[in-house]
Amino acid sequence: MKHAVLSACCAATLLAVPAVQAHFQLLYTPEVMLERPTNLDLELVFAHPMENGHTMDMGEPEAFFVVFKGEKTDLKDKLEPITWRGAHNEAKAYQTGYRVTRNGDYIFALVPAPYYEANEDIYIQQITKAYVNKGAMPTGWNEPLGLPTEIVPLTKPYQVFAGGTFTGQLLSDGKPAPGVECEIEFINTRIDQEGNAFGAEPLAETPATTIVAITDPNGIFTFGVPMPGVWGFACLGSGPATEHAGKELSQDAVLWINAQALNGGPTVGEAAQGASYRVRDNDSLSTISARVYGDAGAWQRIYEANRGQLSNPDALMAGMELVIP
Amino acid sequence: MNRSARLACGLVAGLWLSTAVAHTPLCSCYDNGDGTLLCEGGFSDGSSAAGVDVRVVDADGGVILEGKMNENSEFELDRPDGDFTIVFDAGPGHAVEIPASAIY
Question: What is the ipTM of this complex?
Answer without folding.
Answer: 0.71
